[in-house]
Design brief:
mainly alpha; about 290 residues; disordered C terminus
Length: about 290
């Protein structure tokens, strides 16, 4: 039987965990119910747990704004293409280094590790990007993030654990290295690939700093950069543009528009996570078996 002391400890831990969950979830819930509330009504009372005079007018205003919708498309495009390019480039490097007979293999691994710990800093990076004409270029979102040493090492460890008999059978059938990588290695590595895709996809979706320093063309700004400008910089002018189409709607407020924009920029990446969750845990565990 469980003693009273053990029950008290279990109950205390459960209460603490529930409180942590509430503290973690409530800010997101608050933004969600505020975005679904009538602007003036929400500003005149304290919004707590449910929308005040529920309405979708805030979302209609956001989705009918050309700049925000263009930023949404830029974010989606950079997330999809950036994650796919990262898997291809990083995966090919990891596959090559997983081969024990690779020429200069012992030299290449430290060669990759040194820049991982020691970087030139922001100024040399800015000069490099501008010198190769990636400023005001959509490829500034893709090329700098196409390779990661850490992700390469994780994938390398995973590839080394795959049965060598799979590759040997493919070679007997006449498959080359590229065919083996695309037809054997990638399909067998879905757990680690899904894990890397999730990390890279979230990073691409949430990224805004690269657009802030390298992009001046409004048509190339991602959603997060536009959100940053709305919230921190030109609040009045940006929100006035969003609210133009509802000039007769006197209930809409800048705060409600900002909350709605936060929701629009957050929901897509949250909706993707459940589809990758089963691969995520398995990929983390399998990729961490060896050091």
């Amino acid at each position: 039987p469980i003693s009273i002391g053990d029950r008290f400890i279990v109950a205390t831990i459960s209460i603490v965990l529930v409180l942590i969950c509430i503290i973690t979830i409530y800010p997101f819930w608050y933004v969600a119910i505020y975005s679904l509330s009538e602007g003036l009504a929400a500003s005149s009372v304290i919004v707590k747990f449910f929308p005040v005079k529920p309405t979708f007018s805030n979302y209609l205003a956001v989705f009918q704004n050309a700049n925000l919708m263009n930023g949404f498309l830029v974010s989606v495009t950079r997330t999809v293409l950036g994650a796919a390019l990262h898997i291809i480039v990083t995966g090919l490097a990891a596959y090559a280094l997983s081969k024990r007979d690779l020429l200069f293999r012992k030299i290449l691994v430290p060669f990759f590790l040194i820049p991982m710990y020691f970087t030139g800093g922001l100024l040399p990076y800015y000069i490099l990007i501008t010198k190769i004409d990636l400023d005001n270029n959509f490829f500034v979102y893709l090329l700098p993030g196409a390779f990661s040493v850490f992700n390469m090492l994780v994938m390398k460890v995973f590839f080394e654990q795959l049965p060598s008999s799979l590759e040997e059978a493919a070679r007997i059938d006449g498959a080359g290295e590229l065919r083996i990588f695309t037809s054997i290695i990638l399909p067998s590595s879905m757990p680690i690939i899904a894990t890397i895709l999730m990390f890279v996809g979230v990073d691409q979706w949430n990224s805004w700093f690269d657009a802030l320093i390298f992009i001046t063309n409004q048509k190339l700004l991602p959603l997060q950069a536009i959100l940053y400008k709305i919230i921190l910089e030109s609040q009045a002018s940006s929100i006035e543009q969003i609210m133009k189409f509802t000039q007769n709607n006197k209930t809409m407020t800048p705060e409600a528009i900002k909350m709605t924009t936060v929701m629009v920029s957050t929901l897509p990446i949250i909706m993707v996570y459940p589809f990758l969750q089963r691969y995520f845990i398995k990929g983390i565990m399998l990729g961490a078996i060896k050091g």
